[in-house]
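Could you join me in thinking about how sequence relates to backbone shape in a protein? We need material for that, and I hope you will provide a protein of your own picking. Label the sequence line and the structure token line clearly, so we can match residues to local backbone shapes. Would you write everything just below, so we can both look at the same thing?
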Amino acid sequence: MAASLWLRGAASGLRYWSRRQRPAAASLAAVCSRSVASKTPVGFIGLGNMGNPMAKNLMKHGYPLVIYDVFPDACKEFREAGEQVVSSPADVAEKADRIITMLPTSMNAIEAYSGANGILKKVKKGSLLIDSSTIDPSVSKELAKEVEKMGAVFMDAPVSGGVGAARSGNLTFMVGGVEEEFAAAKELLGCMGSNVVYCGAVGTGQAAKICNNMLLAISMIGTAEAMNLGIRLGLDPKLLAKILNMSSGRCWSSDTYNPVPGVMDGVPSANNYQGGFGTTLMAKDLGLAQDSATNTKSPIFLGYSKKDFSSVFQFLREEETF
């Protein structure tokens, strides 16, 4: 069962763009009053659950954008707000010399950079290319080599904090690349995050993110197991969560992202596990961690592939009507 779910999850990851939830259309023009005279356009590729609010925060800080997403509907509200929308990553590179990519998988990143209509087809010398996707560190290193051949700079800068932090501009960025370019990257990343940390050479940002998400997955499983056990022993889930969060078992999964429905508001467990970090993507990240650690591709199962990763609680509850 685990193996088959992993295979289905992997396939779902490749189709993630086509199924992800779109934020409700809003009048971006109303929230993005800016003086653009001193700021040159920034390219942004990938407007999913994370990329959409990240791009909006760049707008709020006065940066005009050159936008591309594989699904045109994702660009609609940006076009209506007056941003440039183009038809390929290559066109983004033609119009902007600073580009941020936010994509679901290594395959998506390779296509965006090296594909037939990729960034490298029209990238300008001296351009700064920042990839905030969570992908295999070895892919980041290979992309950096290809970018360097074109006279441009590549940095990996994956994020942590989830959709809520993306919306509020409080993401944590883990940055790998040439240290001399870090200040230029931080200028942009600081518009979208409250923590921008230099990790070392290209690939170290991905390494830090993979380690973080491995720990996050472990803590979510532990929180779900503890909550499930307590409920079966007759404890009220809100009371149990309160006790855990004032005791040594406290963690982000218990006090900020509790997996039990009814314990917290504003988290996926309060919304049928919709709108968060998909289990498919968490499984992908765990696969990256496992590949990096053991150079194998063992299957990883965590909850329900189409739900937020905190849905592991429901798996433990053995609720089949999901």
About this structure: DSSP finds 15 helices and nine strands in the chain.
